Queue: 4 jobs
Job 1
Amino acid sequence: MSEILQTPQKKKVLSCIQPSGMLTLGNYLGALKNWCTMQEEFDCTFAVADLHAITVRQDPTKLRAQIYSTYALLLALGLDPQKNTIFIQSHVPEHACLSWLLSCNTQFGEMSRMTQFKDKSAKHANNVNVGLFSYPVLMAADILLYKPDLVPVGADQKQHLEIARDIAIRFNNLYGDVFTVPDAYIPKTGARVMSLQDPTKKMSKSDENLNSWVAILDSKDDIIRKFKRAVTDSNANVHFCEEQAGISNLITIYSAVTGKSVAEIEKEFSGKGYGEFKIAVGESVADTLAPIKAAYDEIIKDKKALEVLYKQGAEKAEYVARKTYFKAMKKVGFVL
Ligand code: ATP
Ligand code: LTN
C-alpha cells in the first residue's frame, strides 16, 4: 500500500498591537521581537488593533497617521506580508460582530476584575467609556476568530488572555465546539519593561512623560539621553534585585537586547558606576533599533504600496474570520 505523506500542520499564532502612539521598546521586547521569530515556525496572523485604540480619546488625524505608521513598522521589523497575514482590525468587521456575541456571554463581574481597566479608568477619569470596560471581549473576539494555538503578548496582557480562554470554554460548553482555547506565549526576558522614570510602572507609549519611554523610532541621541536620565537608586551597584527596581529594569533591557545573562552583566559591570552602565544599555538598544528605523523610513514613503498590502491582508484575514463568525452565529441560533 502506498503511504500518504502528510506535512504536519503548522501551529497557528495570532497577536495584535494598538496604534495608540509611538511603539516603544516595551512593545518590541515584550511582543514584537517574538512575532519576528515566530513567523519562521508558525502560521501567523498579526493585526493593528485600531478599534482598541479608541477606548481612550484619539485625535482623528493623529490616529490615521498612527495606523499607517504602526502597519509600516510591522513590515520594517521584517514581518513578511506574504508568509503571514498582516491586517488592520477595523477592515475585518467580524471582530466587532463577534465581540457582541461574546459580550452577551461574558459577566459584568469578571470584567470588573481587569486590572488594566482599573488603571486606565483612573488615568482617564473624564472618559470611562463602556468600550474601555468591555475591551477584553473585543480582544477575545480578535483571538478566537482565527483559532490560534498561541498568542504572543507581554506579561501585562496575561489577565486578558485568561478571560479570552474562559469565554471560549464557556461558549463551547454552551453551544458546541466553535473556538480553539489558546495559550499565552510570554517571553522569558523583556516581558515587562518598566518606565525609565518610575520603575514601578510599565513602560507605556501613552505615558505623558516622554522621558519614561523609548520609541522604536527614536534617534540614537534620544535613546542614549533617555537612558542617561533613567531613574535609579543611589547604591551604584549593578545588581539585579527587588529593592533596586530602576537598575534591575535596565539589566532586564540590556539582557534582552544583548542575550547576556543577568550574572554575566553583573560581572561585566562589577565595580563600575551606573553612568557607564547606562551608556552601554543606551548604545546597545540604539544599535538594535537602528536597522528597524532605517527600514521604516523607506517603507513609510510609499503609501500606495502599503495600501495594497493592508488590503490583501484584510482579505486573507476575513476569509478565515467569516467562517468562524458564521459558525458561532449558527450555533447561537441565528438564521443565516
Ligand atoms: P498603552 O501603553 O497605550 O496602554 P500598550 O503598549 O500597553 O498600550 P499595545 O500596544 O496593544 O498596548 O501592546 C502591544 C504588545 O506590547 C502587548 O503584547 C503588550 O503586552 C506588549 N507590551 C506593552 N507594553 C509593554 C512593556 N512595558 N513591557 C513588555 N511588553 C509590553
Ligand atoms: N489588548 C492588547 C492588544 C490586543 C491584542 C489582541 C493582543 C488587542 N487584541 C489580541 C493579543 C491578541 C494590548 O493592549 N496590549
Job 2
Amino acid sequence: MKLWAGRFHKELDPKTNDFNSSISFDSRMYQEDIRGSIAHATMLGACGIIDKVESEKICDELQKISDEITAGTLPIDPNAEDIHTFVEGELTQRLGSAGKRLHTARSRNDQVALDIRMTLKKEAAGLIDQLKELCTVLANKAMEYSETIMPGYTHLQRAQPITFGHHLLAYGEMFLRDIGRMQDAVKRMDVMPLGSGALAGTTYPLDRRMTADLLGFAQVSRNSLDGVSDRDFCVELASAISLAMVHLSRFSEEIILWCSWEFKFIELDDAFSTGSSIMPQKKNPDIAELVRGKSGRVFGDLMTLLSMLKGLPLAYNKDMQEDKEAIFDAVDTLKLCLTAFIPMIDTMRVLTDNMRAAAAKGFINATDCADYLVGEKGLPFRDAYRITGELVARCIELNETLESLSMEEYQKVCPEFDEGVYEAISLEKCVNGRTVYGGPAPENVKSQAKGMLKTLEQMK
Ligand code: ARG
C-alpha cells in the first residue's frame, strides 16, 4: 500500500507504478537513507518531539534493517516506490506505531535531498582517492623518465624536444585540478537539508544543527525551498567528472597513437590489451579506446542534469527524480575508467629508444639552431629564423638532418656558422637547456615530480 493511501480510492496502475518508481536506482543509497533516519530519530528524541525510548527503539531497528540489507538477508522489494518508502514500511511492519513516528517533521523531499548529498560526498571522496593514485603513478613515472627525450608536438607535427617525464606531468597537473574541482563541489554539497520539510519547513522545534553534527555536515541549509530544490551540486560534480573524462580521453588518444606501429613509443602490458578474433598479429589498446568512448556518456549525463533542472518552478518536482541515474552513471563511469586506466599506465613499457629515434627526425632542434645564431652570433631572431628555414629546406633536398648537414652547406646559407652549431643543436643540449620554470629539462621534471608527490601527501 502507498504512503498516501488515505486520500486515494484505488491502487496505482501496476505499469505506472514501475514508471513512477525509483527503487531500481535509489536503493544504492540505503545506508545513507538509514543513517539519515537514525540521526533524525535521535534528534526528535533529544528534542522531546518523540519519546526517547521510542527513538532508541527506532534507531536500533533501523540499524538492524541496514545490517540485514548489507548481509543480503533482507531483500529490497522491487515494487516499492523508492528506498525511503521501503525502509519506513519495513520499520513500521516491525515496530508498529513507533515506526510510524519516524517521519514526524520530515518529508521525502528533504529526505531525498539529504540522501543524495550524503551519497555524493562519499562517492566524490572515492573518486578523489583514485585521482590521487593516478597522480602518484604519473609523478613516479615522470621521475623514472625525467631524462627520456621524445618529440613534443603541435598540430601532431614534431615541434620541439621534450622529456617523457614532462609529458606525463602535464597530465598530472590536469588531474590535480580535477581533484581541486571535486573538492570545491563537495564544499557546496556539505549542507544538511533536513528540516526543510516538503518545502516550507516545519512547526516542530527541531535542532537542525544537531542532525547536521550527527551526520558530519559542515552547514545547515538556510532556506527550506532551496534545501529541497537545489540539485546544482549534482551538476557541479558531473561537470568536474566530465572534465576528468576529457583529460582521460586526451591521454587515451595519445596512448592509442603511441601503441601504433607508426609511433611505437610504448607497449601496453598483455593484461591491459586485447587481441583480434581474426588477425593473429593484433594487440589492441581497447582499454584506452573504451575510456575515450565512455567520455561521451558522461557529457550526456551532464546535459541530462542541466536540462532536467532548467525551468523547473520551486520547489520539488518529480522531474528531479531523474537526477540520480545521471549523476550515478557519471560517478560509476569515471570510477570504472580509472580502475582500468591506472594499472594500465603503471604497467606500460616505455620504448625510450624509439622516442629518441623519433626525436632525431623532424628538425625539432630548428628553434635551437636559430637561438644559436641569436645567442652566439648576435643575429636578430627573425633573421636567424629565416636562415634556419632555408637550412631545413636544404636538408630536405639532400635527405639530411641538421646534425648531419656539412659545415660547407651551413656556411653556404650563412657564413657566420661554425662547428659550435653541432653542439648547440644536440638534442640533449636542447632539452637540458630548457630549465625555465615549468620547462622540460630533466632537473625540472625531477623537482616538479617531487613537488607533486608532496602536494598529494599533504592532501591526506
Ligand atoms: N523518489 C523520489 C525522488 O527521487 C523521492 C521524493 C519523492 N517526493 C515526492 N513528493 N514525490 O525524487
Job 3
Amino acid sequence: MTDYTRATATEQAAALAAGDVTSVELTQQHLDRIAAVDGPVHAFLHVSDEIALTAAAAVDAARAAGEELPALAGVPIAVKDVLVTEGIPTTAGSRILEGWVPPYDGTVTARLRAARMPILGKTNMDEFAMGSSTEFSGYGPTHNPWDLDRIPGGSGGGSAAAVAAYEAPLAIGSDTGGSIRQPAAVTGTVGVKPTYGGVSRYGAIALASSLDQLGPVARTVADTAALHEVMGGHDPKDATSLDEPVPACTAAVAQGVDGDLKGVKVGVVEQLGGEGYQDGVRSRFEESLDLLRARGAETVEVSCPSFEYALAAYYLILPSEASSNLAKFDSVRFGMRVEKDNVENTMRATRAEGFGDEVKRRIILGTYALSAGYYDAYYGSAQKVRTLIQRDFAAAFGKADVLVSPTTPTTPFKLGERLDDPLAMYLNDVATIPANLAGIPGMSLPAGLAPEDGLPVGFQILAPAHEDARLYRVGAALEADLVASWGGPLLAQAPELEVAK
Ligand code: GLN
C-alpha cells in the first residue's frame, strides 16, 4: 500500500476521489505516523483515533454509495487545542481545563465535520495561546521536527510541527499576534491568518477578542487555500463575523501558479527588516524578492513609522482583553477545581494552581492597565497607537498591492533559551503583530534555509482587509519558483525523524 503521509492534502483528496486509497487507510496511516514519531515531537495533546476512524469509515461508505462529497472529504486534519470540539478533550494548553470535554462544537469544528474531514486530535500550544515557543504549554513543550532541541514556534507549535512531521496534512491554527505565521516560519510550513472576521471565532477559546483569528496550516499554499475555503464564511453566532463571500483562495492559487505578476506592486516594509534580523533570514528574504521581480512584480520601499510602537501597544491591549476573557475560569464553570473552605478561596486556589506563570503575568498586567486612573495612560494610549498603525497600513497599501517582510527576525532558537526573558520571547512577533492590530490578512511561507544554521526562514505577505486572495496569488507564484529552485519542497531537506517501533 502506498504511503500517503508525505502527499499534500490536495494529492490525498485526489487519491481518495480516484479510489486509490480509502479514508480509513489514509487516516490509519497518519495515526501510525503519530504513534511512530510523536513521542519526541509532542505535537499532540490528545489523539482522537476512534473518532477519526469512525468519521473516515462514514465518508468511505458515502463515497461507495455515490454521494457527492466536499473537496477535502476523507482527508484527516489536526486541530489546535484552542478550538472547542464536542466529545474531544479541549484544554487550550492549560491545566485549568484538564479533563474538560466540551458539550458542543465550535463553528470551525462543525465545518470540518460537515466537510467530512476526520479529526486526528488536538495539538499542543502555549497556555491560552500566550507565547512564541510552545514552552508555556501546561503539558510540556513541542519540539521542532527540524531539530528536536529547538522550538517549533508558538503559540501554535503543535499544529505546525504535526504538519512538518507528516503527522497530519492539514491543521487549524489561531493567530492573535503571529501564532499561525511564526510557527509556520520556523518549521518550514505554510500558515495563513485570514482577515479579522473572515473565519468564525465561535467556540475558539478567546485570548484577545479584537485580535484573534483562526486560520489554516499546511505544507503548501494550495493546501492552505483549500482549507481556508472550508473554514471561512459568515457565521451568525459570531458578532464580528464578516457577512461577505469566502475569498476565492484556490482560484487565486491557480492564477499565481500559472500567471505572471506583471502590474503587481510589492511593498517592502522598511521597519520590518534590517537591524536585529539574522543575516541568513535577510539573504533568503532578498532572494525571494528577486524571484518576485523575475515574475514581473515591481518592488517598492514603504515606510510604516508607527510599527516601532506595535509591540508595546500589543502587550497592553492583549493582556487587557485576556485578563477579562480569562475571568470565566473561576473553578465553577469549567475544568479544574481546588476545593477550599469558601467560594473565594476555592477560586483563588484553583486559579493559582491552574494557571501558569506567563498567564498570571498577563492577567496582572492587563488588570493593572485597565484599572481606574491608569486606563487612559496605558490602554487608551495603546488604542491610539493601534489607530496610527492602521493609518500606516492604509498609506502603504496606497503604494503597494501587498506588503512583505521576513516573518520572524531569526530561525528557531533552542528550547529554554528565552524562557527566563519575556521581552526576548515577545520580540519574535515584531513582524507579525502589526497585521493583528489592523485586522488584515497575512501568510508565511518557507523561503529556504538560513546558510549559517540550516534552519527554516519564513517569508511574510500581507494584504489589505478582505483581500486575502492576493496572499494566495503572490504566495503560490513565489512558492512555485522557490520549490523549482530547490528541486522539491523544502521539507524534503529536513532530517528524518527516528521512528519508534
Ligand atoms: N506570541 C504572541 C503572544 O504571546 C502571539 C500569540 C498568538 O498569536 N496567539 O501573545
Job 4
Amino acid sequence: MQTVRDLATLRQTIAGLRGNGERLALVPTMGALHDGHMALVEAARRRADRVVVSIFVNPMQFAAGEDLDRYPRREQADVRMLADAGVDLIWMPDAAVMYPDGFATSIRVAGVSEGLDGAARPGHFDGVATVVAKLFHQVRPDVALFGEKDFQQLAVIRRLVADLDMDIDIVGVPTQREDDGLALSSRNIYLDEGERQAAVTLPRALGIATRAIESGQTVDAALAQASEMLVAAGFAVDYVALVDAETLGRPRPGHDRRLLAAARIGATRLIDNVAVRAEQQG
Ligand code: PAF
C-alpha cells in the first residue's frame, strides 16, 4: 500500500493501478477512521479491483466557529487500519495541494443542498461538492462509496455526478451502529460519558417516530414526539424532518421517504436518519 501526498505521484500511481483496465473504487474520508469507514472499504473491495481511500480534512466544508481545528486527526492509526484492510493507495494531500494560492472555484448543487443541514450549516455542501468533484477528477474512480449516515451529502453527490455527467457509480452504504444503536461517527469521540448515554436517544427517537408514521399516526405528531424526546434527553434540536428520499423535498406518495434529524448534545452536533416506508398512493 502506498501513501501519496502530491498530484504528480498520484496520477502516476493511479495509471499503474489501472494497469489492464482494472476497476477502481474511491472511498473519500476525512480520516479518524472507524468501523463505518471500514464498511465502505469492504463494500469498495467487493465492487472494484483496486481501492483508493482519500484522507483530507476539508476546510472548505467547515464554517467559521465549527470544529475544523479540533476535528480528530489520527494519521498513523488510519494508515495501519487501511493497510490491514488491503487498501491499494491512500491519497492524503494537504490543504496547499487541494487549495493552492489563487484557488477560486466553488460548486453549488441547488435544491438538495438547501434545506436541513444546508440551512443549519450554510456553505457546508458547497465545500463538500467542491472537494468531492476535485477528488473525482484527481482519482477518476469507476465507483465511489459514501455512508448513508450523511444522507443529505449522499443526495448532493448523486445530483452532482448526474448533473456534471461524471461516469461514476455512487454507492450508499448503510450506517454502522454501536450495539445500543448510536450511529458511528468520528465526532462521537467528543462525547463525555453522560452525553454518550444521552446520545442513544437520537436513534431511539427516530425509530419510535418511524414506527408511529408507518402505523398511521400523523407525521407532525410523530416529529413533535421525537423532538420532545430529544429535548428531554438534553439535546438542542436543529431539525427532525420527513422528506422524499431522493429529492429531500416534500414526501411524494408511492416514493421512499427518509426521516432525518440533527441535534446538539453539549458542544457536539450529531446527525442520523432512517428509511420510512413509502405512503401508499391513492
Ligand atoms: O463524509 C465525509 O467524510 C466528507 O464530507 C467527505 C465526503 C470526505 C468530503 O470531505
